[in-house]
Amino acid sequence: MKKCDLVFHYHDQTKHDYYRYAASLGHLDWDNQPDPFRRFIGSRLISLPLTEVHPSLEYDQLYSQKIQAHPVSLETISALFFYSLALSAWKQFQDTSWALRVNPSSGNLHPTEGYLLIDKIKGKCFLPGVYHYTPKEHGLELRTEFGLELWKELTDQLPQGSFLVGLSSIHWRESWKYGERAFRYCQHDIGHAWAALAISASMLGWKLQILNTISDEAIAQLLGLNRFNDFELDEKETPDLLAVIVPSNDTLKPSQSLKQESIQKIANGKWYGKANKLNEEYYPWEIIDMVSDACEEQKSDCDIEKPSTQLFSVTHPLPVNDVKQERKNTFLAGHIIRQRRSAVAMDGVTSITKIQFYEMLSRVIPVVGSMLWDSIAQRPFIHLGLFVHRVVGLIPGLYALVRDPEKQSLLQTSMHAEFQWETPPECPQSLPLFLLEEKEVQNLAASVSCGQDIAGAGAFSCGMLAEFEEPIRRFGAHWYRRLFWETGMIGQVLYLEAEAKGIQATGIGCFFDNPVHDVFGLTGHTFQSLYHFTIGGSVEDDRLSTLPSYHHLASSSIL
Predict the structure, then answer these.
(1) pLDDT tens-digit readout, 134-162
(2) What are the pLDDT digits (tens) for 225-252?
(3) At what angle do helices 171-178 and 182-203 cross, to 10 degrees?
(4) Could you report the per-residue pLDDT of 435-491, keeping only the tens digit for each?
(5) pLDDT computed for residue 321 by the predictor
(6) Which of 65, 344, 324 is nearest to 203 (CA)?
(7) CA distances to 100, 113, 171, 235 from 284, in Å
(8) Which one-letter DSSP state was computed for residue 53?
(9) How many CA atoms within 13 Å lie on the side-chain side of 473?
(10) Residue 92's closest CA among 539, 546, 540?
(11) How confident is the model at residue 308 (pLDDT cuts 50, 70, 90)?
């Protein structure tokens, strides 16, 4: 089978339906749960300081104005990870405790690992090196170091002062619980982590841009992931993405890349540490290995035509002045980011206003100059099919948000012919939101989300509808991952928007794929629903205690 056909086979095989769930073990072996924290035993750990570097930055500033760039230092590198991949709190029930993180994860399993490649960190790291980020300790583990000349050779094409961050996945962490569908969830998590890093970089006045000119093999070499003797066979890490962080006004150009000869030299150097063993027993999911191999981005893929960047909106769809009329409180960006939680239940009564609803949706529309959407630098492929329940001023029903207005016709012809496609009242002209059908959809939303009440008990929920077959065949099988990453990025924005409005959100990976398509009239592989989200008033579990994220470390003003 061709790689694209393998991807379509995997996607169809791992669909849930009313009478058939994707394969999993069917039970949870809690004694065999993977360790949520990877460490490289034998490598040097550099502790990062818990200090505040942007105490007065308001959440809205992330969208409304340019933030002055901070210099690269131990403190700002610490802040980059503290507001993206770090622990956000500990939860405790009786004698059991578990950590939460800034970046969300399906089932709080955290298959995503983060890496830093930098020339030096004043006062701590005097040579360029590759570091693994350890969220439990909030530190950096040195994997390898090399000379400054090699760093200059590696990054010769990049903007001055740039450094790199990388993300990888341990698929077993997810498949332990979710079985063959786990590969999908790992890609959601990469999208969340990517967005979290881009937002954190923006808080420092830096720009994060994905590097589209490098293969997965090269990423593995550069991060040390191809050093198979350093990992347990069933606990290997799969390279996902490498991004450039530019701490200045410069911009990464599409053609700029890293030198392959330099990558090879780094890979051939001395490396430190061996990955800790996460657990003792494994269940092989060959279909995950198959789709992972099919989705590997080859060197030849880097030369394939990339999506256009010309379709981004040039202004924000919702004027800031309209939003300010609704705001009564000032929210600090750092607090919103670190207080983000995944709701476990919705109260079924909390509503939001239509202006709040419009603002939330406007934040997921790609905009030139956005802290987030510039990092992806491509036109959008994901649109939202919305189930609206409790939005004051809007009729309950099915809605659609067309994130690329030029795809409205394609969506209309792909969906039910009887849909209305009417602009809701007082909707900003530049926000491509449409009422499809007036109806009560609470039970429907819950039903297609694997019967989970949380999908119908919020203010609204959504299915993220991807342009599917055409981009995968056009850009390559690896684009399957990219579509999921885009959904994770949208999800991260919705999480923060919910927190900023005093409500909460949660991502839903368990839904009945084809029944969701039936709701909107979608057939074939033209569009596929990849991720669901629900937003509303959350119900807290008062049996749980919450502890500070780094209570086991030295006290700090930002704990």
Answers:
(1) 999 999 999 999 999 999 999 999 999 99
(2) 999 999 998 899 999 999 999 998 888 8
(3) 130
(4) 999 999 999 999 999 999 999 999 999 999 999 999 999 999 999 999 999 999 999
(5) 41
(6) 65
(7) 27, 21, 11, 11
(8) S
(9) 8
(10) 546
(11) low
Are the beta carbons of 112 and 103 closer than 8 angstroms? yes
Phi, psi of 333 (to 5 degrees): -60, -45
pLDDT of residue 360: 96
Please tell me the predicted confidence (pLDDT) of residue 94.
Answer: 82
User: Token pair of 20, please?
Assistant: 């058939």
- Give the pair of three-digit tokens for residue 372: 């987030």
Strand positions, DSSP E, 439-537: 460-467, 504-508, 527-536
Question: Cα angle at 112 between 110 and 115, to 5 degrees?
Answer: 135
Q: What six digits make up the tokens of 414?
A: 């792909």
Task: Determine the pLDDT at residue 303.
Answer: 63
Q: How many residues does the chain have?
A: 559
CA distance 142 to 162: 19
Residue 278, pLDDT score: 94
DSSP letter at 33 equals P
* Pick from 454, 545, 463, 533: nearest CA to 498: 533
Decide if pLDDT at 496 tops 90: yes
pLDDT tens profile 353-363: 999 999 999 99
The H-or-E segment that residue 519 falls in is helix 513-520
Using a cut of 0.85, tell me whether the model's pTM lies above it: yes
**Residue 205 — left, alpha, or beta (φ > 0 → left; ψ -120 to 50 → alpha)?**
left
- CA gap 445, 520 in Å, rounded: 12
What is the residue whose two structure tokens read 């399993």?
A: 109
H or E, element range at 490: helix 479-500
Average pLDDT for the chain = 91
Structure tokens of 151?
């760093």
Q: What are phi and psi of 533, to 5 degrees?
A: -145, 150
What are the residue ranges of helices labelled H in 204-297? Answer: 216-223, 260-267, 286-294
What is the spatial distance between Cα 450 and Cα 324, in angstroms, rounded to a whole number? 38
Burial (CB count <10 Å: 0-12, 13-18, 19+), residue 48:
buried
DSSP string, 30-65: GGGPPPS---EETSPEEEPP---S-TT-BTTHHHHS
Distance between CA atoms of 263 and 8, rounded to whole angstroms?
A: 33
- Distance between CA 103 and CA 487 in Å, rounded? 14
The H or E element spanning position 139 is: strand 139-145
How far apart CA 82 and CA 86 sit, in angstroms, is: 5
